[in-house]
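Appendix B: complex inputs.
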Amino acid sequence: MKKAIIIILIFGLYAVSNGQDKYMSKTGHVSFYSKTPMEVIEAHNNQVATVINIKEGTIAFNLIQKAFKFERALMEEHFNENYMESSKFPKCTFSGKFKDFDLVNFKNTGSYKVVIEGDMNMHGVTKHIKTNGTIDVKNGKIYGKSKFNIKPEDYGIQIPGIVKDKIASTMEISVDITYVPFK
Amino acid sequence: MKKKIIIIVSVLIGLGIIGAGIGFYFFKKPVKDFSQSSVDVSLTAKSIYTEFLKDQNSASAKYVTTDKTIEIKGKVSEIKKNDDGSYQINLDVGDPEGDVCCTLTMEESAKAGNIKSGDMVSIKGQCTGFQELISKEVVMIRCGISK
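Resulting structure:
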């Protein structure tokens, strides 16, 4: 009987610790910003799904292109139909690792500068990227933020000459996520 | 003769102004307000979920690429307020691993306060696709309460 209780306890503890290895969000925010003297283009996606595994130091993102919201209908249409080809390539994914993640204590309140490295797949092209970010651990939640630049041409996205002065050749990507324990 | 030229020139200028106006209208036109527009397709949470589960490509071609206003009927399994103040309503699909996740517009979120788990609702909005990283989820944005 005692043995049984101990076994149950061990399994119970294992289940609890296992459950808290992962933090997630389905309502992460990713935006991009393009600025030229002619035009400012900005779009926001609030439906980004992302998971951090604090035991393995891995991080994954899955983003639906169609969920990017623009102010003007024409911009949104061009983004989905001409540039991203969202019906052919509906998602953008990222899968990577924290560098030196042993230095980050995800369980204690604190603020950390981190480097994340991994593969991003967008528009059918996979690229290895490396970016800086911050991790804030507060009240059992993990707040992750990052800003980095990408070039559309690196992902096989052609911007025609006629709109070259309206769309920047480098886009600024902002990531802002509140991770909660995986349930 | 002179009169004729004046008439032709003024007609051309008029057409030019109208053309520029139409062009400017389309250029500046805001994104379609799915939460207020008339419904194109109406179905239950379970049936749209099953269609995506079976074949994502054909379901996307039907509901996502067309930019139709989709109305989903179902039972609320969860309702919560996002960090930005908008409400998110999850609809039951008869599968504990999945749901239809609807994010309301700010205007519609103001009316969502009295909705609770277990209520039957109709929600209309834009379907953006299927998300599988965390759970299996049909994603709806720009939503409003239909009934």
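The mean pLDDT of chain B is 93.
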